[in-house]
Fold:
Amino acid sequence: MIHQERREQALVVVSQLLELALEPYSLEELMEKALQLILSNDWLTLLAKGSLFLIDSQEPHVLKMVTHIGLDNHLLKACARIPFGTCLCGIAAQKQEMVFKNALDDQHHISFKGIKNHGHYCYPLMSKGKMLGLLNLYVEHNHIQNAEIETYLTMIVHALAGIIEHKHAEIELLRHRNHLQHIVEERTHELRQAKESVEQALHKKNIFIATMSHEVRTPLNAIIGLSDLLLDTAQTSQERQNLEIVVQSGNTLLHIFNSILDISKFDAGGMEFEQIDFDLHKLIWESCAVLIAQIHKKNLEFICSLDPKLPIRVISDPTKLRQILLNLIGNAIKFTEKGTITLLVSLDESKELDIFPWCLYFQIHDTGIGIPFDKQQIIFEEFIQADSSTTRKYGGSGLGLAICKRFVEKMRGNIWVESQEGQGSRFHFTVDFQPSSHPLNQTYLSSAVQFFGLNILLADGNPNSRKILSRTLSLFGGQIVEANDGYDVLQLIENAIQYNKPYFDLIVLDCRLPKCNGVKLAEYLNHLSNQIIPILLLLPGNHRRNDLLLSEKLGIARTLIKPISPLCLIDTINEIFQNTPLPSHAKNFHWHLLPSYTTKPIKILIIDDHPHDREHALSILQTIKGYQLNTCSHGQETRHLLQSEPFDLLLIDLSLPEMNGLHTIKSIRSGQISTCPANIPIIGTSSHLTFNTFARQAGTNDFIFKPYRPEELQRILRLTLNLKMILCPSTIDLDTTIHSEQRSILSDTPPRIQIANQLIFVQQALEKGDWQLLTKEIETTKEMVGHLEDPNLSKTALRLLMAVRKENKPDILKWCHQLENDLKK
Amino acid sequence: MKILIVDDEKNNRQVLAQIMAPFGEYDFAKDGREALEIFQLAIEDKTPYQLVLLDIMMPIMNGQEALFAMRAFEKEKGYSGSKETSIFIVSALDTEKQVVEAFFKGGCTDYITKPIIRSHLLAKLREYHLIPAETP
Structure:
């Protein structure tokens, strides 16, 4: 074999050895294969005999045979363990260098009788100066040492040493891994045990709480029950009041304990969820009915809208659903001081509707304090309120939402919140349900009679409420015209009459309409035409009995009490038109003012610098019975007249050059003319086309261009005056809408006048004897006074507040008067 | 004796008022700021309160802040030392030692826990000679 070929073969062996190392063999297997590989090469002029030794860390100076090929049986035992220095192998290992012999000699310690003469190559396997093992090869007796072969053997031995080292590292790694795994297993076991013991403790705790709650409820029931009984026989109002507090506090405590019981029962897995066929709409309305009293107490608007596509009956757990609703709406009421609470219920249309179970989607919106973004997640955890500081304003256990979340998730739904601080919150939740198999199960849409083409004037000041009513009405085929306030209603009807537009078949009128009182407006509309338009009057839940009686007396077709169920609304409209066919639209329509509206003379002051124009107005208005007229020009004369006698309406010319008209209006509106009410109806007139905007900005109620025709002036006067009559101050105390409306009118007036006006609200509340309202009004007064930064006024306001806290009526009157007097200084 | 009862819960105010009614004239405040204003007004009128019963957890300004401000105002107007008002913290908060210490440092006279038990409250007030001893 020529030199080149040998070299190549040697390289092949080395690469084969290295490949071996990549196989998943154990070290022993690897050594066996390596030895076979080495001895399979005939070019090395070796005998087909040899052995491989390794050194382990326990005995670093002993060679241990791991594999051999063709070794004589006599040698196997003796060569299994060779201490360093013994025999050729031991000597090579001790010297850490290769030993070559071509015959047996006295260094060949291990021998047996009849051993055949032979030679050896003993190569120590070393890596980085560390002995790893030894390769022992046999050669023929008298073998001639060959440098070339030795070179190749050295290469092979290096590769072998590399393999061993690599394998060692691998073994070490494996050992570490196993160790690690073992540790992990141990820890897991410990953790599992800890978890089990925690679960056990939790279970024990839940059982404890459950027992405790039962134990607490027993005495609590006695306290509430007996106090309730005592209420019947309470002698003094003080006794009564105290007992009421006991009952109320007892109920609060009971509620908290019930919540704790629910949570623990749920967490202990003891809460059962039922599948009952029930009337969904009834459930929702009954749930709302429980909370209506609270809503009215806070003077909030409540809107409830059920999608007409909702089935009437469903299968789910009504008790839990009711509890979730009560909780969420209850929260909305608690955290909302003014505005609206809305409940929207629909089918979750993001889910396929032909796949069961279906999904109900509930939304509860409020206009309350809202929830800061970083608190929106944690409020669903138990025992957490968004505000937990010591200055927090709202009490409560913080369990309500935690319970809701558990229930909703158990009913295979989701609950989440959207909110912005100060803007209110929107809680959403979904729950799965099965459709009912009840034979009467329908949706609203299919159950109600429809009324196509009915012209309906819908007047509601609350845009949300209006939107929902409008949607329901139009879904059933109604043609809706919407009105925002009393003024809108009057104008729409005026227009309808004037331009002979199709008239309305039905007016749906909210009693708490801005800029007027709904009942009065209804009364007025009823007298308006010779053909009566049916009116459906919507009363707030806290309506006065009088309103209801009055509306009956007025012959108002129907009244509904808010919140209004869509089904109820549709039924009522169907009822109205049950006996009369849908009306053909009125064509010849006569407008007339009823005499009762003109019994008291209406005093009008015409202010105009042009004598001709004054005469013109006078001549138009003189023809109408019931007006008492005065005229004057701008300036001192106007001031005199306004201060000397009260007027019902002013007609003011705004002409150039001195802009006197605008000036007069401004001083009236800012309350600078003491005897003239700042909100007196004012109609502006001018021949300048651009002046109508000026006039509105200055605060006129209406505007008319010069020259005007008699009917035009009459119409505008009538509209403005009617509005004023309908705006009935005696009902202000109940109608918050009007309340806020009036306040907004006042917002441009100077603070002192505003406070003086606020004191009127205080007095109204005092007359009514509503302490809660009175407290609220006086708190507002004190706040308004605070802005003036007048120490004397502030003191008086504080004394007034102290008086109302003590519910001391004489003191309240005293400080009210004092404050009034102080304000005038 | 002039007494100022400070609590955001009307029911709690009522309970305290009825307990204290036999011992003097009382006024109410429903939060810390209101209490402070009334307290200051009384001093300015030279008719300071002899006793303030002060809740801790209240909106707008809590009891602790009100307490500090009241003591500071007394100092400013020369009503400190023997002339200072007895201010009792009345709270359902835990009576952790540190919390109580902080209140004493803030200058409160003593600390009473809720729920209020009439006999306990009266005993405490007797301890400070704010109400006469019980006649046997």
Observations:
- Residues 740 and 796 of chain A are 25 Å apart (CA to CA).
- Chain A is about 50% helix and 15% strand.
- The two ends of chain A are 131 Å apart (CA to CA).
